[in-house]
Design brief:
It is built from 13 helices and 17 strands. By secondary structure, the chain is an alpha/beta fold. The protein has a 7-stranded mixed sheet with strand order 5-4-13-14-15-12-16, sandwiched between helices. Strands 7-2-1-11-17 form a 5-stranded parallel sheet, covered by helices on one side. Helix 1 packs parallel to helix 4 and helix 1 runs parallel beside helix 11. The radius of gyration is 21 Å and the shape is globular. Belongs to the aromatic-ring hydroxylase family. TetX subfamily.
Length: 384
Amino acid sequence: MLLQNKKVAIVGGGMSGLTLARLLQMQNIEVNVYERDVNRDVRVQGSTLDLHEGSGLEAMKRAGLTEEFYAHHRPVASKMRIVDGALNIKFDDHDHVKTITEDRPEIDRAPLRDILLNSLQPGTVVWDSHFVSMEEQNEGWILNFNNGSTAYADIVVAADGANSKIRPYLSDTKAIYSGITLIEGNIYDAKNNAPNLFEFTKGGKVMAFEREHFIGYGTKGDGSMMFVASFKAPEQWTVENGIDFRNKEQVYNWFKKEFDSWSEQWHEFFSGDEVNYILRPQYYFPLDQSWESRQNLTMIGDAAHRMPPFAGEGANVAMQDAFELAACLTGNQFSDLKTAISHFEKEMITRAAEATQESVENGEKMHSKLALEQMLGFFMQVKE
């Protein structure tokens, strides 16, 4: 086996990194995951995930975790309501026996991460390990973390997200701005802190379109609610807007101005105290990106193929990266590590390019003047 007597370091304890660690341990590979979170109890943010056949669900199957996944998935989370800016319901998945996304079961990020963490050997994840730099030593790497610790690995896998600090060791290709920026908001105890919008979801999702703007939100099993408000903006807006996103009043005033044609019912997202915001301009890597493969370093997930969230493919493609890389590294079809990694990277780039293109195109549709009509046409067609 190519990885016999070798140590693998995965930097980043997200879904792709943990999935890869699980799959490697199933083949008795020595692996550690270095995660910057202080411990596993740090609150997990982000939207509910819908896992797809052939990618996310296939990863859970190969990891032997399908039963655990279905024990924690949330069927009602797939139910969709499409509305306009006045919260007029144009399509209601709750009216249908079969959910449009029934073949893409939903699960919150926190329980999915717990499933993966619980599947790993004790001590696999090294918490409070915020990657700073690394340098080559012999045929491997010495990794340096901001807490002063170091670690050696024969192979390093970057799974450290869209702003990866390891990616520059492989590629200097820069991300492209999509033309769309979103504000992410997270509300805890949403039943009390945003009661009307919480009730409106009926446990599922809501997508709203009005005048080239979009709001999407949904509830989670822990009682919290995440929403995004997205819009077209020049790239420099993110640094020139003058808004302190830690200041709730400033964000609220911005929303009332930017989404001025939207119903005041949406203000519930911005008028409460129990909410925090994250500014997220949407970037993606070029579809034709490439880099020279190495025998001791590669990357997966957003680190390799950052993309907007408008096709629901990011986490699924990342989890597929994990099982495809594991197969290349632990199989017998390649003569050496560089050949195995090169094959994986070429296949990954092709798969990711297709998902990225779909995400970018969907983003344009969802922020067009005909967004509501186009989305209604899509969902009605799916139901037929």
